[in-house]
Write a structure and sequence with these properties.
Multidrug-efflux Transporter Regulator, Chain: A, Domain 2; 2% strand; single chain; two-stranded antiparallel sheet; mainly alpha
Length: 172
């Protein structure tokens, strides 16, 4: 067992382990992203488990990776928690109709998660297309204002064209 799994962790330790602040941890608790700490009586310190540390790490990872709002992040995490519950149900399910229900329910949760991820990806693709258009416009202005380009300008434009074709940004 790890040292953090043997004893409850205080909020400052969780913040340090996850690269956040105690205030962030408290806020995640307030808005329901993180369940309330265990073993906390009136006036006592918050205590957390290794599972809480893992949950905060996942929240931070998804927040940074996807750039979702906290409401969207909450929906994504709720769907993941529901899927985890369904995985536990699956091991207890003894008949085919029950297992089919579990699969159908899991597919609904995955659809919610995919909708959020695909929405974010679409926003990023739109931003990329806008930046490619701006870059193209600036190269056009260079050609118009300074028609005698040097070899360096030509190489830079070729590099940009190559990057666009590699990223798929040139095709919308």
């Amino acid at each position: 067992m790890s040292a953090t799994a043997e004893k409850p962790l205080r909020i400052g330790e969780v913040a340090e382990l996850t690269g956040t602040t105690p205030r962030t941890i408290r806020y995640y608790e307030e808005i329901g992203l993180l369940p309330g700490s265990v073993q906390r009586g009136q006036g006592k310190h918050r205590c957390y488990t290794e599972a809480d540390v893992d949950r905060v790490r996942e929240i931070v990872r998804l927040r940074d990776l996807l750039g979702l709002s906290l409401d969207q992040l909450s929906k994504l995490l709720a769907a993941e928690a529901a899927r985890a519950g369904l995985r536990r149900e699956w091991t207890q399910a003894g008949n085919a109709p029950e297992r089919r229900r579990i699969i159908d329910e899991a597919l609904g949760h995955i659809a919610i998660q995919l909708e959020l991820v695909r929405g974010r990806r679409h926003q990023l693709e739109q931003l990329e297309a806008e930046l490619v258009d701006r870059e193209r416009l600036l190269h056009q202005r260079i050609r118009e204002k300074w028609p005698r380009r040097g070899a360096r300008d030509a190489r830079e434009e070729q590099d940009c064209d190559r990057q666009r074709s590699n990223s798929g940004a040139a095709v919308r």
